[in-house]
Design a protein that fits this description.
single chain, alpha/beta, Rossmann fold, 9-stranded mixed β-sheet, two-stranded antiparallel sheet, 7 helices, globular
Amino acid sequence: MTVVGIPLRPFTGAEFPPKLALNRAYFDALEKAGATVLPIPVVKDVQRLRFHYELLDAIVFPGGADVEPGRYGAIPREDCHLSVMPDLDEVELALAKWALADDLPILAICRGIQLVNVACRGTLWQDLQVEGATGESHERSPRDLLAHDVEVVPGSLLARTLGRTHIKVNTIHHQAIRKLGDSLEVAGRSPDGVIEGIELPGHRFVLGVQCHPEELRDKEDWAARLFGAVVAAGAAYRGAHLPAVASRRDT
């Protein structure tokens, strides 16, 4: 059994009580790849968060709210119309730093690629068009629309995982990586130069994509391969750490 964790998102509204939830497409994609998916709640107690983390063989950081600019040394811009969740940032940055330190396999999607970049001391464009990174909108609907190309770096882990160096992707984001984090490498770009893929050489499996492969899993083979790869990496991680994993899960 390969256990893949995925953090939930907090939701509040006048018409319903506070909730923790996440799009089902992530769960479906991981389960079809053979994973047992463990939802991770947004908790402020570090020991409780660490308990959930210790159960994992791999982790997926999904899409969601904007990372708070203060996390990467920037001042929030009102004209970028940010939507932030500070409690979520706290939880996911802790999980990301633990995973990176422990060589736990990571698949980072949309906000996730940005979150991992910030965890590695990188920065973000608060809004691609407002800040002049591109003149093209990267917020296109519907969610499974193949909106633009991505050129993948030949020989990269991303290229080997996808089985190709050119893909067409969906795009549902207004932010992206600005300054690349420490030791990260660019693995793919869109035609306008926006970073669409990253990886971390020297680690077991760290991949980030700016698109939403969970929405394409049933129509694009490369999207299914991403989820299969993180589950396989998680199984290898568990095999290499089996005595320690068994001990943690029995306590």
